[in-house]
Amino acid sequence: MNESVEQKTLHPVVEFLISSRFSGLCGIIGPVIALIGIALAIWVSPWFNWFNNALSDLGHPTMLGGSNGVPGLNPAAPIFNTSLILTGLITLILTVWLIRYQVFERSIIGVIAAILLTISQFFLIGIGVFHEGFGYTHFIVSVGFFLTLLIAGMIYGVRLIQEKHLRIIGIMAFILALISALIWVAYYLTLLPFTGVAIPEIISAVTAMVWVFPLCVLLILGKRM
C-alpha cells in the first residue's frame, strides 16, 4: 500500500524515466547509435576492409588501418569510440531494468542473463575507452563483450522459452547466439575464408539486436514480459 502511494507521488518525468517504456526505448536507441557510428566511421575510412580488418581498427586514434597499419591521425576514431561509449551507457538503462524485473519475477536464470547483459555493456564502454591503442587491455574488454553477449543470449533465450507468449523470441535468442558462437569457433579454427574479425563481430552484434529489439518493443507498448 505504501509503495503504491509513493509511486503516485512521483513526478511524471521521474515515473517515465524509471518505466519499462523508457527502458525499452533505450534498448533500441543505444544499439542504433552504435550502428550509425560504425557506418560513419567506415565511411571516413577508405582503407577499411571487411575481410581484413577488425571493427576496432576504426577506433585506433593514431594508426590508419589499426595496430598493424600506418601512422596517421584517424578521423574515424572519435566517431567509433564515442558511439560505443554512448551505446553502452544508454543500453545499461535497459539491462539494469531487466535485472530488477527478473528479481521481481524470482527467476534465477533471468537474473543471471540480465546481469551478463549488463556486464557486456560495461565491456562495450571499455572498448570505446580503451581503444585499440591500449593493446592487451583492449583485447580483454573486446573478448569480454562478445563472450558475455553470447552467453547472455543463450541463457536469456532459455528464460524466455519458459514464457508461452515470449517463446518465439526465446528460441530466436538461443539459436542466434548459438550461430554467433559457432561463427567465432570457425574463425579461430581458421575455417572461414577471411582473416579479419570484423564480420564475426558485426554478426554477433546484429544477431543480439534481432532478439533484443522485439523485447524492447513489448516494453514500449507496455506489454507483459
Q: How would you characterize the overall build of this protein?
A:
- With 225 residues, the protein is mainly alpha-helical.
- It has one domain (2-220).
- 71% of the residues lie in helices and 2% in strands.
- It contains 8 helices and 2 strands.
- The chain has helices spanning 2-8, 12-17, 20-43, 76-104, 108-129, 136-161, 167-188, 198-220; strands spanning 63-64, 70-71.
- It has a two-stranded antiparallel ribbon with strand order 1-2.
- Strand 1 and strand 2 (70-71) form a beta hairpin.
- Helix 3 (20-43) packs antiparallel against helix 4 (76-104) and helix 6 runs antiparallel to helix 7.
- The radius of gyration is 19 Å and the shape is globular.
- Mean pLDDT is 92; it is low at 1-7.
SSE order: HHHEEHHHHH
Q: What structural class results from the helix and strand content?
A: mainly alpha
The count of helical stretches stands at 8
Q: What portion of the residues fall into strands of 2 or more residues?
A: under 5%
- Biggest sheet strand line-up: 1-2
Poorly predicted residue ranges: 1-7
Radius of gyration: 19 Å
The biggest beta sheet is recorded as: 2 strands, antiparallel
Judging from the principal axes of the Cα atoms, what is the shape? globular
Number of strands: 2
What is the count of distinct domains?
A: 1
